[in-house]
Amino acid sequence: MNIFQIRRKTLETDIEIKINFFGNGFFKIKTFLFYFDHIFSQFINYSLFDCYLRCYSDLKIDSHHAIEDISICLGKILIKKKINRYNTNFIIMDDVFLLISIDSCNRIFYYDNFLKLDFDIQLVREFFSSFSKNFKCCLYIYCFNYFNKHHLIESIFKLFGIIFKKAKNKKKLYSTKGIL
């Protein structure tokens, strides 16, 4: 078993997360952000991680701090497990056609092509931007098409899980430098 955990307590949030890298996709998630619980469970299910996540936050203000701090914790946990350096995949789900690519290179860069930045999409952008900073990776999310925002967000988290499922078995370091 490869179980890692982290607790992050700030004036805005109190988060505890445990992840078993070689699980079966089981999860217990309680953030009081019911839509986020739903989409985060998609990531866990498709990655075949097992996850316990508990988050108390200042939801009277909004959900920004909770989403950002969960992403920080996730990045700090997943960086403990070596994965294949280059990971890219596509997904087609209903009206969504999407690409995600991750270079686990110990350098930080985030890109997406989201043009309509309502609050939900801003939170998705914040989640993955914070993740790339804490996982220390280059992360690209490119949406070719979508009509339904719920399908877009759900497919992003599903594909993110699929990428980590495929990337878990690190075999070789791909770098001419010999180190990342």
Description of the structure:
This is Imidazoleglycerol-phosphate dehydratase. One of its GO terms (molecular function) is imidazoleglycerol-phosphate dehydratase activity. The structure is a single chain. With 180 residues, the chain is an alpha/beta fold. It has one domain (3-167): Imidazole glycerol phosphate dehydratase, domain 1 (Ribosomal Protein S5, domain 2). Helix content is 36%, strand content 31%. It is built from four helices and eight strands; from the N terminus they run E-E-E-H-E-H-E-E-E-H-E-H. The protein has helices at 34-47, 64-78, 119-135, 149-167; strands at 3-9, 13-20, 27-30, 50-57, 86-93, 96-103, 109-112, 138-145. The protein has a four-stranded mixed β-sheet, with helices on one face. Strand 7, helix 3 and strand 8 (138-145) form a beta-alpha-beta unit. The longest helix has 19 residues, at 149-167. The chain is globular and about 50 Å long. It starts with a strand and ends in a 13-residue tail after the last helix.
